[in-house]
Amino acid sequence: MTIPKIPSYPLPFKQDYPAAKVNWKIEKNRAALLIHDMQDYFVNFYGEDSELIQQVVDNIAQIKAWCVANDVPVFYTAQPAEQKDQDRALLNDMWGPGLTAYPEQAAIVKKLMPNEQDQVLTKWRYSAFYNSDLEKMLKDTQKDQLIICGVYAHIGVLQTAAEAFMNGIQPFVVGDSVADFSLKDHLFALQYVQNNLGVVEDVECVIAS
């Protein structure tokens, strides 16, 4: 009925999941970054001293710095602090009131706070594309690649990557810049992306693009 407390686990390496079926490469002029659900509420389930989440936040910060330096647009998703039951709909059955019960935890984590030029999308469902202008904003600016990082890998990150693929946008999930409920869930998400709809990269590969 709610998100469990999440123990730390070691981030997987590239050798831990299969090779991608496609040879897509990140191109700066085609790409945008999505920082997915990195709000205090979702991150706090890892605990204050989680080495896992500290490493993920640091890696995302590196990617964002690369984006800023290379004029790659940055998007965020954030659930609203107040959501009516009809807006949450089936999320209430699956996860309970969620962030609505802790509105003081709605902010993006401090190290990843959006800049004035960043776009913050209101998040209503697992996918960042649901009931948002993300697809239109990407296509209006001729961006057909989406670099995705954040939480949780096998839920919103994976659903967003799948919808990007179905909308003709190449998804790149950054394997060491996402976190999940467990290493098993994390690997499942990365394997699914590689096998079915996109490419998994690591932070070093992204910033070398």
TrEMBL record:
Domain of life according to the entry: Bacteria
Gene Ontology MF: a single term: isochorismatase activity
The Isochorismatase-like domain, residue ranges: 31-204
EC number: 3.3.2.1
Xref: Pfam families: Isochorismatase
Keywords associated with the record: Hydrolase
Gene3D superfamilies linked to this entry: Isochorismatase-like (3.40.50.850)
PANTHER family linked to this entry: ENTEROBACTIN SYNTHASE COMPONENT B (PTHR43540:SF3), PEROXYUREIDOACRYLATE/UREIDOACRYLATE AMIDOHYDROLASE-RELATED (PTHR43540)
Record-given protein name: 2,3-dihydro-2,3-dihydroxybenzoate synthetase, isochorismatase
